[in-house]
Amino acid sequence: MSLESRRSLRRSRRNRKTRYRQPRFLNRKRREGWLAPSLQHRVETTLTWVSKLIRFTPIDLIVQELVRFDLQQLENPEISGIEYQQGELQGYEVRQYLLEKWSRKCAYCGVENVPLEVEHIHPKSQGGTDRISNLAIACHDCNQKKGNQDIQDFLSGKPDLLHRILRQAKQPLKDATAVNSTRWALFNRLKETGLSVSTGSGGLTKFNRTRLNLPKTHWLDAACVGKLETLKVLTNKPLLIQATGRGTRQMCGTDQYGFPTRHRSRIQIHKGFQTGDIVKAVVTKGKKIGFYLGRVLCRASGSFDIVTQNGRVTGISHKYCQSIHKKDGYSYGF
Q: Within this chain, do residues 202 and 329 fall inside the same structural domain, yes or no?
């Protein structure tokens, strides 16, 4: 009824041509700092695990990786102008961005694990710019071979490669865009924890990792964020955590044509287990003899499926299953 009432109000205002009047209610204004649900989810998930770690470990400081501008202003509040925009790590940051964008491979020949150089797709001698969309990563041989040729001439005999490079050059890093949108929201929420929060940059992270002679991995990059003198690595097998959600509210399944096929049961717990629990099963007889560890898919019949590291195993009786971790919306692995 409320929706119908609002709809009639909108229609009457339009018909009377009185849209200049102030609306009787305003439900379309986004609050300050609003984020899309997918981005807000990233912030909330990060805060969830920060809160868990604070409860179980003695944490005094949180270091978050932000863009280079933040670190410069913290170190030098008087910095301004072009010095503020570029800074000491300006070229370093651009190179890191390009390495990620081009998957650390030569854009022209695809070679990897060799020294790579920043290359202008449209040469500066012919009017090209230093914009990110005009930069690529190339090996020394390809960079020298291309010289100051335009990419249209250099790849005239390889139209598929030319089309791929031009398309990829215009594509931003989606993950970088998401981080760029959420970094300040996360920073402000982290300060609400009451802990000391400092910032670092991507270039400083790589500098620390290179100085400490550590391999390139996401978890070691996270350990190298900010000002760091030494780092003692106690494991080479980090726990990988992925948000999987808590299921779906959908009550009716559909077939390939979109027609309803069956209604879902409201009962989620079967034989003491719930879909998403992490279980181990030691099957001692039958065709499924063996040891299985993974997430369980429950059925009312008591015949469960277990998603293991090697694939999905079907038809495991609940009698062989032992719960290790109850469903909490996350999956865990190594």
A: no
Shared domain for 233 and 300, answered yes or no, is: no
CATH of the domain at 307: 2.30.30
What residues make up the domain containing 144? 90-170
148-162 pLDDT, tens digit per residue, is 888 888 888 888 888
Antiparallel, parallel or unpaired: β 311-317 and 303-308: antiparallel
Please give the Cα distance from 276 to 280 (Å, whole number): 13
Q: Which residue has the tokens 């990563």?
A: 137
Phi, psi of 180 (to 5 degrees): -60, -35
Specify the pLDDT at position 129.
Answer: 77
Domain final residue, candidates 195, 221, 241: 241
Q: Average of pLDDT values for 259-269?
A: 74
pLDDT, tens digit, 9 for 90 and up, residues 276-309: 889 999 998 888 888 999 889 888 888 899 988 8
How do residues 47-90 score in pLDDT, each as one tens digit?
Answer: 999 999 999 888 888 988 875 433 344 344 444 454 444 444 45
Helices 37-56 + 174-191 axis angle, to 10: 50
In-domain check, residue 14: no
Q: Looking at the structure, do residues 164 and 187 belong to the same domain, yes or no?
A: no
314 contacts 305 by C-beta, under 8 angstroms: yes
Residues 187, 166 share a domain: no
Which positions ≥6 away from 126 have C-beta within 8 Å? 148, 150
Kindly indicate the confidence band of residue 93, based on its pLDDT and cuts at 50, 70 and 90.
low
**DSSP 8-state class, residue 149:** -
How many domains would you assign to the chain? 3
Residue-level pLDDT at 19: 58
The DSSP line for 248-302 is: ----EEE-TTS-EEEEPPS--EETTEETT-EEEEEE-SSTT-EEEEEEEE--TTS
Distances (CA, A) of 62 to 9, 180, 232, 241, 308: 51, 19, 18, 19, 34
